[in-house]
Each structure stands twice: as C-alpha cells, then as structure tokens.
C-alpha cells in the first residue's frame, strides 16, 4: 500500500513538473517575442526616421540648388545688361554716343567730312531790304517781282558746303537718340563774311550782297552804285544732324539761321544807307 501510494505521488509530481516546464517555456517564448523589438529599437534608435532624414536632406539640396540657379540666373542677366551697356552684346553702346558739347562737336566734325553729304535744298529769303534817300522798301507789294528775283530757292543737288565747327562757334550741343542739335553763337559786326563763318552756311557774302544791291538799284533806275562799307550779323544758327547707330556717319543735316546787313552804298558823291535782312536754310543728305 505504501509503495503504491508513493508511485502515485511520484506520477502526480512528475506531471506537475512537466506542466510547469511547459508553462515556463511558454513564458520564455512570449518574453522573446515582446522584448526583441525593444532591444532592436534601443540598438537602432530612430531607424524608422531614416527616410525622413534623407527626405529633409534632399529638400535642403533642392533648395540650395534652386538658390544657386537663381543666383546664376541673376548674375547672367546682370552680365547681359553690362554687355549691352558696354557694346559687347552686339548692340550699340550708350557710352559710345556723344553727350557733352565737346564730344558732339568732335563726332560731327569727324562724320561731316566722310559721310558723302550733298546739299539737296537751299534758300535765302529777304525779310528786309531798305534803301535810304529814295525810301525804297523791297518788301512793298509793288516790288514783289524784284523780291522774287532776289530770293533763292534752289532744290538742285550740289556739293556740300558744310564746314567743321570749332568750340567757339557753338553755344550749346545736345543729343536726343541719334540726332544732335547744335546751336551756334551770334557773330556780330563783321565787315565781310564767307561760307562757314561761325559755322553758318549758305550765307549772303559780299559778292551776293553786291548782286542784291545791283538788282535793287536797277529797279530804282540808277547805275554805278558801289558798296562802300558793310557790317554783317549772323544769328539764330541751328544745325540738326542725324547720325547712324554707331555715330560714324551722318545721314542728314539741316541748317537754319538769320543774317542782317547794314552798309553804305556810294553813288557819285552821295552816301546811301542800306539795310537788308534774310532768313537762311539748307538741307543735306547722304
């Protein structure tokens, strides 16, 4: 009986040991399942965040690349503007265009002699013509035919009579685009004038004055009148010249001005005062 009881007790004890053994094995498996990720997480902290870091760095790279491209584009645009201003970009350089009085005169003098200009029109129109003693006024209606005979309106193409300018001839010089406007100083009290005096062209010189006097005295009906003395004044002279883009040639020039003559005519023993005034204009083209 005692041995039988002992055998039963050992069997129960063995069964209990097996149960506890299985239970212990189950707990070990659970612990391994639950703790393994924790260990991995501790050994590789932030492993799940690696894509975020890479994405952030990629964005930074893109941002830096865009910023670099913007900077390069801005520098390229600035270089293009600089090239245009200095004439390196294939366009006319604004700095090559004359702006000062001296530069404009220099450009005009250089181009006027090499541009092959011809005078395409010229006019001398009297605004006054008075002879004392006989009180002859050429502007009166009865002398219209004589006035037409004196006035010149020549549109034939002739050689250019334009002259180079000196700084003392010029009152002011300005530029607007490719066109320069040169205003001439007044020239007063000259006993004789010739083409180009003070920068004035197509003027009434001594020879032309004598011609006008002879036309008038013929109309009066007297002969043998001579020019004893003279005083010329040139005023309101304006030269307008249009250049090509690089300011090496002139394509067109217009000139306008005024001229007065105050002199004494000699007839026999008499001294006769004469006053004549005229508007001058001429045009030149290449």
Summarize the structure.
This protein is of the alpha+beta class and 286 residues long.
* First-to-last CA distance: 150 Å
Largest sheet: 10 strands, antiparallel
Q: Quote the beta fraction.
A: 25-35%
Question: What is the count of β-strands?
Answer: 10
What is the averaged pLDDT score?
78
Name the structural class.
alpha+beta
In N-to-C order, the SSE pattern is HHHEEHEEEEEHEEE
Give descriptors for this structure.
286 residues; rod-shaped; 10 strands; 5 helices
Structure characterization notes:
By secondary structure, this protein is an alpha+beta fold. It has five helices and ten strands. It has helices at residues 2-43, 50-86, 101-112, 144-150, 206-220, and strands spanning 118-131, 136-137, 152-154, 158-159, 170-176, 179-184, 187-190, 226-243, 250-267, 270-285. Strands 1, 2, 3, 4, 5, 6, 7, 8, 9 and 10 form a ten-stranded antiparallel beta sheet that branches. A hairpin with a 2-residue loop joins strand 9 and strand 10 (270-285). The termini are far apart.
Give a topology summary.
Elements lengths: L1 H42 L6 H37 L14 H12 L5 E14 L4 E2 L6 H7 L1 E3 L3 E2 L10 E7 L2 E6 L2 E4 L15 H15 L5 E18 L6 E18 L2 E16 L1
Antiparallel strand pairs: 1-2, 1-3, 1-4, 1-10, 5-6, 6-8, 7-8, 8-9, 9-10
């Amino acid at each position: 009986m005692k041995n039988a009881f002992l055998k039963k007790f050992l069997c129960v004890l063995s069964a209990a040991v097996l149960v506890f053994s299985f239970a212990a094995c189950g707990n070990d498996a659970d612990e391994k399942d639950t703790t393994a990720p924790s260990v991995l997480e501790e050994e590789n902290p932030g492993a799940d965040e690696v894509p975020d870091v890479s994405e952030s760095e990629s964005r930074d790279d893109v941002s830096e690349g865009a910023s670099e491209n913007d900077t390069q584009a801005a520098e390229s645009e600035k270089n293009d503007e600089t090239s245009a201003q200095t004439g390196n970009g294939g366009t006319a350089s604004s700095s090559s265009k004359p702006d000062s009085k001296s530069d404009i005169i220099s450009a005009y003098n250089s181009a006027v002699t090499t541009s092959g200009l011809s005078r395409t029109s010229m006019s001398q129109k009297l605004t006054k013509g008075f002879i004392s003693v006989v009180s002859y006024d050429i502007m009166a209606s009865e002398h219209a035919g004589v006035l037409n005979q004196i006035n010149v309106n020549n549109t034939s193409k002739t050689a250019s009579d334009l002259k180079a300018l000196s700084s003392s001839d010029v009152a002011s010089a300005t530029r607007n685009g490719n066109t320069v406007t040169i205003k001439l100083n007044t020239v007063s009290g000259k006993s004789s004038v010739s083409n180009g005096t003070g920068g004035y062209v197509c003027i009434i010189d001594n020879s032309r004055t004598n011609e006008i006097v002879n036309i008038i005295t013929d109309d009066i009906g007297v002969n043998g009148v001579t020019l004893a003395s003279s005083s010329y004044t040139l005023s309101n002279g304006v030269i307008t010249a249009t250049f090509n883009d690089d300011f090496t040639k002139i394509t067109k020039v217009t000139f306008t001005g005024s001229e007065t003559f105050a002199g004494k005519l000699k007839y026999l023993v008499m001294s006769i005062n004469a006053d004549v005034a005229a508007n001058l204009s001429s045009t030149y083209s290449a």
